[in-house]
Recover the amino acids of this structure.
């Protein structure tokens, strides 16, 4: 009966989302029709409605949209998902649906679907789908609080990870999980579980019998991977025989700063862990902004580039551009471009100046570096010397915002591996270090700021750093 009810509710949900997309299409059309001189007239709209071919095309679009919603997990159980992830999924699905609409209408040349129409359709469908998902989540939460739509979960293991999972689901009764208890053999650490008023339903040997005679919807396995691998596989196989959902924690290796997600490869699930910004549409938007901003600035600043390129060779012998090998994303080597601010043989003079280094760690900085030319000091103070890195951003070696790329010499001087995590993202022209004092900040604090940026990354954070970079450059804060 429950399976039939579930299939019925999923069917209703599929019809509901299809209706939302039809409503979004119709509302976008009516809004454009009501505005004089904007795209489509009422007569065009009415003439399109009476064509059978348009209904066939629209039915095909609905089918493709349904496939997109299915691929985005709209009809799967998402009890443990956050509201934010539901909104992101909604935006991803409606964006793909809008792109599909654009492609189809361009192929068959439907003049009604203008850029304004697509923008309206995307905005209306995104808002309606996201709000409906949040509303459905709220409604189901209220239903579960009344004791309906519950899932009975049994936890295998009584260690700290198992109890942490138990506390999380108990703290969220709206998720609809009813904790049956724990399964484990007696061991010294089990007393902590009993002292927290948790129930140990059975030992490992009694699990099979327990599953035969009790309602169990899910089994969450939190056993140490190394010492209990064989038994874990037996528990998973036993649950598979009973048709019971098995849940594993992704923190198998206790990676404190890692995020995780599941991938499918040849019908096999693979858990992927990563630290720093996640992949997905925010990273694509970041890259699109990098290209747009760098290209725009290169065009606008072209006269300044020309003037500086002419002045540098006049001020000191040597080329206008300085190129140096730097360490980038995942230790990829690339040539960074800067306006030359030092004498031509500056690298050869470095060993004689090492004793005067004024900063800790492997980096080299001195305030009155004798290798810097008078024009170079001005270029550094105004950060004009950094502008050619816009070409690195356009090429994809760098981003507008990210940890500063270090020379190979500095990277090879790293003493601890945690400092190398900063290389797991694309380096940037500006970053938290850049807007918080630059050369006045010690190496250890600099590395910590880079990791803080990675752990807290968002598009909004990038925009804030870019906004703070302008006054920092204007004041010449920490420039050396």
């Amino acid at each position: 009966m429950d399976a039939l009810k579930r299939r019925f509710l999923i069917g209703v949900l599929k019809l509901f989302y299809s209706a939302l997309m039809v409503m979004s299409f119709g509302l976008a059309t009516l809004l454009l029709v009501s505005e004089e001189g904007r795209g489509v007239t009422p007569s065009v709209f009415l003439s399109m409605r009476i064509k059978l071919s348009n209904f066939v095309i629209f039915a095909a679009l609905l089918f493709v949209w349904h496939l997109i919603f299915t691929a985005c997990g709209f009809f799967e159980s998402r009890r443990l998902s956050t509201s934010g992830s539901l909104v992101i999924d909604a935006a991803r699905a409606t964006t793909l649906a809008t792109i599909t609409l654009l492609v189809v209408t361009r192929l068959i040349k439907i003049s009604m679907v203008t850029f304004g129409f697509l923008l309206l359709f995307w905005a209306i469908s995104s808002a309606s789908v996201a709000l409906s998902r949040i509303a459905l989540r709220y409604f189901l939460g209220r239903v579960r609080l009344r004791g309906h739509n519950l899932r009975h979960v049994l936890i295998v293991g009584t260690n700290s990870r198992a109890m942490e999972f138990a506390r999380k689901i108990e703290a969220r009764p709206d998720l609809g999980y009813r904790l049956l208890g724990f399964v484990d053999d007696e061991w010294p650490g089990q007393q902590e579980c009993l002292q927290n008023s948790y129930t140990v339903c059975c030992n490992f040997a009694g699990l099979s019998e327990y599953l035969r005679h009790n309602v169990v919807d899910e089994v969450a396995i939190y056993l140490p991977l190394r010492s209990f691998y064989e038994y874990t596989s037996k528990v998973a196989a036993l649950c598979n025989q009973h048709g019971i959902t098995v849940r594993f924690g992704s923190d198998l290796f206790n990676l404190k700063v890692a995020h995780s997600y599941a991938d499918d490869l040849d019908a096999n699930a693979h858990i992927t862990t990563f630290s720093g910004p996640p992949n997905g549409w925010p990273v694509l938007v970041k890259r699109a902004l990098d290209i747009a901003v760098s290209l725009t600035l290169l065009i606008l600043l072209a006269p300044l580039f020309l003037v500086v390129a002419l002045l540098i060779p006049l001020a000191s012998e040597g080329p206008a551009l300085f190129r140096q090998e730097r360490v980038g994303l995942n230790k990829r080597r690339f040539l960074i471009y800067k306006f030359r601010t030092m004498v031509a043989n500056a690298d050869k003079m470095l060993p004689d100046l090492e004793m005067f280094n004024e900063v800790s760690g492997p980096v080299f900085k001195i305030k009155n570096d004798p290798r810097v030319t008078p024009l170079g000091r001005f270029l550094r103070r105004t950060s004009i010397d950094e502008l050619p890195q816009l070409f690195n951003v356009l090429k994809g070696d760098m981003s507008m915002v990210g940890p500063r790329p270090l020379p190979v010499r500095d990277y090879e001087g790293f003493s601890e591996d945690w400092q190398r995590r900063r290389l797991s993202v694309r380096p940037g022209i500006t970053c938290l270090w850049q807007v918080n004092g630059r050369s006045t900040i010690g190496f250890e604090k600099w590395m910590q700021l880079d990791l803080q940026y990675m752990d807290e990354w968002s598009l909004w954070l990038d925009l804030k750093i870019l906004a703070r970079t302008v006054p920092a450059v204007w004041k010449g804060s920490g420039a050396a």
In short: The domain at 151-249 is CATH 3.40.50.720 (Rossmann fold). The mean pLDDT is 83. The chain has three domains: 2-145, 151-249, 281-475. The radius of gyration is 30 Å.
